[in-house]
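The instructor's notes for this session suggest beginning with a concrete chain rather than abstract definitions. Hand out the sequence below and ask the class to guess, before any prediction is shown, which regions might be ordered.
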Amino acid sequence: MNTEFTPQNLTKALVEKFSKSEEIYLVATFGSAISNEIDIYSDIDMIICSNDMATTYGHYRDTIESISPITAVSSFYYDKPNVISEVIYLKDYKPYQKIDLTIIPYLGYLSEFNPNVFVLYENQVIDRTLKRGIVHKNKPVETLDTWTTNYMSLVIGFVKTYKRQNMEMYRYWELIKDAMIVLMFEKYNGWSKQYDRPRLSSSEFKDLFYRKINKNEFDLLTQALPQSGVLDVKHSFLVSFFLFSELLTIKSNFLKEYVNLEFLDYIRNFLQTELK
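After discussion, reveal the predicted structure:
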């Protein structure tokens, strides 16, 4: 990961690349860049307007990969035509600088978007009439890999809020801790294809914690959930995540379902660097 790049530098590189595409007439940002709260932990919130969505759809990832290889992608808005909406992680950048990218025919196309944007590039001459569009796609069936990729945003959220000393860190900690315990329960009771299963019931938790698990796992769980009741949230999170990722790999192998292990390693290395 290249630590010399800041959110501002990555934003500038993206604007320079996309402004060279003839069909793109506007690039804007929103979020922390608007409120002047941007810091080294900020991601890239970017909206792009194109008068030829089909052309843009054919090359937008190549444009981004001319800056850095893409290591993982989460997509949204499957049910709407003429929308490309993704969270994109870059191999050479820390996960803080994930790109929240939306490409649409014009600002305001989707009511979900915050209209308060800051324009970074605009071509006043180009015809803004949509020439060619893209049809909507049905949302694919969730897989272990798509669930995992979406869940990694919680890991990044924890590190950000921990670094910023924000109480929101406890919410992220709880979600990862609960997911780890569910996977541990599945290890002993059968792997499930319900990926986003809720936390264990009281009886399931007791069965796991006091009857099923081996001594090594018991020791790790008591580090994540200290019996003294005194929580070291950073240590608990690290133990929980590394147990989570280990169990996830076992589940993937058992169910013979693909998981992007390169992306999982990318997140592991990020945690080891940021939470020494």
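Then share the key points. The first helix runs from residue 7 to 18. The two ends are 16 Å apart (CA to CA).
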